[in-house]
């Protein structure tokens, strides 16, 4: 069915209402009466047209409002969907940031473990690698436990791995002591001579000389007396020198 516009419908109604009454009563009215009747009819048509326009406008407003409501509902659904997606992305971003933070914290902790640390060795400060310190302390712990063979092996491996270590003098000395504890005097003397050669300023040097003298005495080597004398001369203020004097005075 063909739909009329608001203006077309009003014009058609006006034409119909104007033409029909005039044709039906053309012969019954004179000019004044006809003019009055025409004015009344026009007034009625205008009133009807106003009412019709109001109805059409009301219908149009309702239709527009309904369209807006529908559009708003669709928009709200899309917004809700976007909010859900944003929430998911926000959670993923937060989790990613937490993982990244945890990674850097763990990495920093690992790097700190690898960084040289300052330690005190025989009264002197030194920078040592954490693994270097751990390896030395493990070997020393074995030595203190009385497992001199395993301790000697551990000190040998340490010196091979960290030849320039600040613990090297001590490691070399305890290696000689491990040999001595196993009654291997030749091995002990060789090890302690390296202490005197490579680390003459180490606090372990006078102790190494005393250890050499002890091994020489065990081997009935007359050089033991001279070693004690050299010890007193080279390190007169050491505790080992005091012990050397006592041994010499007792002979």
Automatic annotation (TrEMBL):
Source organism per UniProt: Rugamonas aquatica
Family: Belongs to the CpoB family.
Coiled coil: 72-99
InterPro entries: BamD-like, CpoB, CpoB_C, TPR-like_helical_dom_sf, YbgF_tri
One of the protein's GO biological processes: FtsZ-dependent cytokinesis
Keyword Cell division included in the entry's annotation: yes
Keywords: Cell cycle, Cell division, Coiled coil, Periplasm, Signal
Domain YbgF trimerisation: 60-118
Keyword presence, Membrane: no
Segments traversing the membrane: none
Main localization of the protein described in the UniProt heading: periplasm
Superkingdom to which the source organism belongs: Bacteria
UniProt signal peptide: 1-26
Compartmental location: Periplasm
Name this protein carries in UniProt: Cell division coordinator CpoB
Role summary: Mediates coordination of peptidoglycan synthesis and outer membrane constriction during cell division.
Gene Ontology cellular-component terms listed: outer membrane-bounded periplasmic space
């Amino acid at each position: 069915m063909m739909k009329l516009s608001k203006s077309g419908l009003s014009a058609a109604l006006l034409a119909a209402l104007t033409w029909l009454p005039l044709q039906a009563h053309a012969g019954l009215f004179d000019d004044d009466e006809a003019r009055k009747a025409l004015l009344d009819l026009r007034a009625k048509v205008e009133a009807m047209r106003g009412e019709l326009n109001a109805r059409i406008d009301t219908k149009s407003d309702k239709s527009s409002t309904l369209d807006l409501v529908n559009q708003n509902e669709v928009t709200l659904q899309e917004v809700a969907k976007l909010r859900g997606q944003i929430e998911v992305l926000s959670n993923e971003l937060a989790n990613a940031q937490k993982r990244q933070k945890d990674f850097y914290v763990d990495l920093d902790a690992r790097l700190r473990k690898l960084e040289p640390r300052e330690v005190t060795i025989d009264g002197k400060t030194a920078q040592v690698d954490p693994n270097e310190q751990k390896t030395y302390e493990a070997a020393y712990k074995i030595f203190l436990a009385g497992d001199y063979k395993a301790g000697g092996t551990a000190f040998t491996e340490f010196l091979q791995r960290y030849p320039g270590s600040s613990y090297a003098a001590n490691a070399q000395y305890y290696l000689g002591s491990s040999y001595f504890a196993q009654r291997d005097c030749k091995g002990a003397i060789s090890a302690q001579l390296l202490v005197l050669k490579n680390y003459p300023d180490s606090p372990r040097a006078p102790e190494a000389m005393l250890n050499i003298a002890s091994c020489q005495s065990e081997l009935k080597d007359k050089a033991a007396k001279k070693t004690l004398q050299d010890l007193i001369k080279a390190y007169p203020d050491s505790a080992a020198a005091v012990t050397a004097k006592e041994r010499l005075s007792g002979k």
